[in-house]
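Field notebook, page 295. I keep forgetting to write these up properly, so this time I am using the form the group agreed on. The chain and the ligand, NAP, are recorded exactly as supplied. Prediction of the bound pose follows.
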Amino acid sequence: MAKRTAIHIDSSTRAIITGASSGIGAALAVAMAKRGASVALLARRRERLEAVAEQVREAGGTAHVITADISKRDQAEAATRQAVELMGGVDVLVNNAGRGNMASVEDTTQEMIESMFALNVYALWYTTGVVLPHMKAQHKGHIVNISSVAGTMAFPFNSAYVAAKHACTGFTAALRSELVETGVEASAVYPAGVETEWGDVTEGGAIGSLFFQGIKNSRKIARERDVDLAPLSPMIAADEVAQIIIDSIENPQRCDIFTHNGTLDHAVHALVDRPTLEQRFTPVYLGMRKSYEEL
Ligand SMILES: NC(=O)c1ccc[n+]([C@@H]2O[C@H](COP(=O)([O-])OP(=O)(O)OC[C@H]3O[C@@H](n4cnc5c(N)ncnc54)[C@H](OP(=O)(O)O)[C@@H]3O)[C@@H](O)[C@H]2O)c1
């Protein structure tokens, strides 16, 4: 059994968090700061990053604000290098920045495909490529990639996001296969609904409304068909996800972390018997189709 490298988050920990200006990234930065950690906060919106940095300092941590569009290789690499220099090294990288989209397959433009993959997938190589030599040299480190339930199963009308998050899942597994016995860990985290801005800032329209309206429609469809609605996990707070991420770094027994009850079962079901899973989710898919057509 391979030995796993646990990292206790404390005042010696140096962490880089992408997408730290809101949602899960911001909550994680503050949660790590409560343990005294140094955090490098990466995102595009400086004012929002400064506000998170203030919370980090109030919580007892050290904050470094670095603005960058990490979907651009030169900016992502320069920002990550700057973070390592400012903190004098790096122990944890959380590839969290991400954005959804809303479009049927035939409505998905070239621009959407490219921007979805540039941010949610290509950026994984840019930031990770910079930290790996440092982590390997110290035989210690943990790279956490925030995938999604959409990285293990599918929802309609966001195929570019679903494909990108499946790529994130694959990237994490490939990375782990390169890291065996180096002392460097990698994990993927698969959240379902989290109360953040994610559902409102999607490309192509607010996918949050598509899901919410779609689920309402799907209840009606399930009643009409006299079938059970597939269980969907309730939304959880970003703070809760942040705590789960910290636990997974401190106790790295698992490398695929499902934050919501029931979502691991769906992931296994998708692998073992996708048609039956799809059948269970048919009212949800049809409910979302109705809301997509109406939006
Ligand atoms: N919320 C959910 O229900 C949910 C569910 C499953 C998975 N996830 C995943 O969780 C991660 C965090 O999302 P969230 O829910 O916390 O959403 P969020 O509040 O919208 O946060 C997204 C973060 O990504 C940053 N970002 C976006 N584009 C960027 C770019 N080009 N360069 C640098 N940073 C960029 C944003 O900052 P700026 O705009 O300032 O750049 C922001 O800090 C994402 O990967 C998302 O796909 C979320």
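OBSERVATIONS:
- The chain has nine helices and nine strands.
- The first helix runs from residue 23 to 33.
FOLLOW-UP: compare against the apo run.
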